[in-house]
Design a protein that fits this description.
By secondary structure, the chain is α/β, with parallel strands linked by helices. It folds into 2 domains: 158 residues, SPOUT methyltransferase, trefoil knot domain (Alpha/beta knot, 3-Layer(aba) Sandwich); 67 residues, no CATH class. 45% of the residues lie in helices and 11% in strands. It contains 11 helices and 7 strands. Helix 2 packs parallel to helix 8 and helix 9 crosses helix 10. The longest helix is centred in the last third of the chain and has 23 residues.
């Protein structure tokens, strides 16, 4: 087991009911760099044909998922176990938020697991009893309903914030167009607007021109954007003249 794997929590779905929800949980995990899923007695067996489409490409998580007959077996190699629940269910244990749990997991010695209960009922008291801590999401007490994938993604996201994941590649931005091109755009607008009386009354002409200039210079158009706008204006201009000639 690599040190990197040690720092990643294992996501344990206890008695999950729907294959779609297992797939969605796998997708949530993969978004934030988690790959190890364990299943405890999935209701409809495993593998489940409904899980793959819902995973949206997180097939490696599903292919490597391990199935266990009990929660105790699923976490037997873990030194730190967190049970996600909105209630303590009569068990007195430390209560942490996803952010607090993530911090503990990243610095912990030994493997960590986060337990998620069945969609309809959540974890049973016996499952919670196996955990060292209770993980509770601070949400509106009047509507404390999270689906399985939502709960997984909250915990995975908090863990990922300290995991130095590579950010998605962004296309290089083109530099702003030179002033000469911008002046050409402004002039093009003014030549089209002038015959239609846009700059009237005369007393407001300069103020209106300054406002138009401000609107057109503020976005910082690049070369291609200026060319596109000029093309739009030229097309509109041709259409107007064609209409006048008919």
């Amino acid at each position: 087991m690599t040190s990197q794997a040690h720092g990643k929590p294992i996501i344990v779905l206890v008695r999950p009911q729907l294959g779609e929800n297992i797939g969605k949980a796998a997708r949530a995990m993969r978004n934030f760099g988690l790959t190890e899923m364990r299943l405890v007695s999935p209701r409809d067996g495993w593998p489940n044909p409904s899980a793959g489409p819902a995973a949206s490409g997180a097939d490696d998580v599903l292919e490597q998922a391990q199935v266990f007959g009990s929660t105790a077996d699923a976490v037997s190699d873990c030194a730190h176990v967190y049970a996600t629940t909105v209630r303590k269910r009569g068990v007195s244990k430390p209560v942490v938020t996803p952010a607090e749990a993530a911090g503990e997991i990243r610095s912990a010695q030994g493997r960590s697991a986060i337990l998620f209960g069945p969609e309809r009922s959540g974890l049973e008291t016996a499952d919670v009893a196996l955990a060292r801590s209770i993980l509770t999401v601070p949400i509106d007490p009047d509507f404390g309903s999270l689906n399985l994938a939502q709960a997984v993604i909250l915990c995975a996201y908090e863990w990922s914030k300290g995991a130095d994941l590579a950010q998605p590649t962004m296309e290089d931005l083109l530099p702003p167009a030179p002033q000469e091109e911008l002046e050409g755009l402004i002039d093009h607008f003014e030549r089209m607007l002038e015959p239609n009386g846009y700059f009237r009354p005369e007393a407001r002409r300069e103020a209106t021109r300054r406002t138009l200039r401000t609107v057109l210079t503020k976005p910082g158009w690049n070369h291609l954007e200026v060319r596109t706008l000029r093309g739009v204006l030229s097309t509109l201009q041709r259409g107007r003249f064609d209409g006048d000639s008919r």
